[in-house]
What we know:
- This protein is α+β, with helices and mostly antiparallel strands.
- It is 42% helix and 16% strand.
- The strands form two sheets. Strands 1, 4, 5, 6, 7, 8, 9, 10, 11, 12, 13 and 14 form a twelve-stranded mixed sheet that branches. Strands 2-3 form a two-stranded antiparallel ribbon.
- A hairpin with a 4-residue loop joins strand 8 (319-320) and strand 9 (325-326).
- The longest helix is centred in the middle third of the chain and has 23 residues, at 168-190.
- The chain is globular.
- The two termini are 40 Å apart.
Amino acid sequence: MKDITPELLKELAVSFEKDPSARVLQGALAKTDMSKLSCTPDGSSKLAGAFTYEVKTHGITAQEMSGRCWMFAALNILREKVAAKINVEEFELSQNYLTFYDKLEKANNFLQMCIDHADEPVKGQLMQYVLRGMSDGGYWCPAADLIEKYGILPKSYFPETFQSGHTLGYINTINRLLRKDAMELRELVAEGKDPYVRKGEMMAEIYKAECIAFGQPPKVFDFSWKDKDGAFHEDRGLTPQKFYEKYGDFAVREYAAVINEPLPGRPLDRPITFHGIENMVGRNMTALNVSQEALEDLCLEMLKNGESIWFACDAGAYLARKDGIWDPESVTGDELLGGFSTTMEKGKALLYSQSSANHAMLLTGVHLDENGKPDRWKIENSWGKDVGKAGYFVCSEAYFRRFVYEAAIHKKYFSEEQLSFLEKEPVEINAWDEDL
Length: 436
């Protein structure tokens, strides 16, 4: 069969009309959102209850209409360190501050990649990847790079703007500018001219646009607060870098990105690396590819020790947003459209673009079954308090094994053998094949 013929259409129609359950589903879906029908109470009830190990956190944050989940998750880990050190009940770090420098670094990296690869064909795969432009997206490595380079500061000293929480308009406009800049830089290189004077002018345009959209970040500030005992404190003349060093109590370089991506060309127990748009100039994203069991064991050890975990997963898979659940058994969207199966092995789902690490959050708890094995995980999300259980979610073990791809693990939890894996020569992959 090559074409859709009248005979084939007749056969398809007869097949549909013979299935009475399809008619029922057709009626149900005609006036109801699929997401409201897909979560089964019997399945979700199995995920209810307390957690064997749980890390207390300082509440839910909201990334609004932006893709900064990876940044929010990283800053929420740091928030706990700062809040404990200054002895306060409520505290939040400025996401807008890192947003400013994230966009600035991505623009600089974009322009530099255009210069470095000016000889690549514009319709080649590399340049087509570059010309996608910047996005809000990122992973653990760029979050660590930004924190280490620029520091952090309390949210009250550089709050959100409408544009930082609703980034689509800004990103679309700047990407149009960057593509024009790419054309100019490539033409300068082709003519044998120095592109860097013009690149500096381009960066000045980007910086001004960012100040307009997000505000100009403070260079120095005076930090004053009252602790939960009512005592007043003040620390004058801090830079964001000094604030991070003094109050962060969190060495980002002591954490390593660990992934489970069973794909061809990505051997286990070996670092995987690439340089993509999300990077800073001169920095690669690197992660240690391990087995699913090793990834899970490392996460479990951190939670047992009272440490929440930055992790990345496929947030679109088997999600009941309102109920705060990720679970293949509880969320049955496939069955609503006739009962077909979309199940694929983890590696093949990545290979065929059915799944990807598209959202980052914090693991803050785990429940162990009678055999001491995880059966559900507690998650702190950054979608605000109006979804899930006041902003907190739960995922099943079945979901964790299939759709959790990355976690940032403190190196003290690595075995000696795993530490030795970090020293191996990294396997370099194409930037357009990224999923780290």
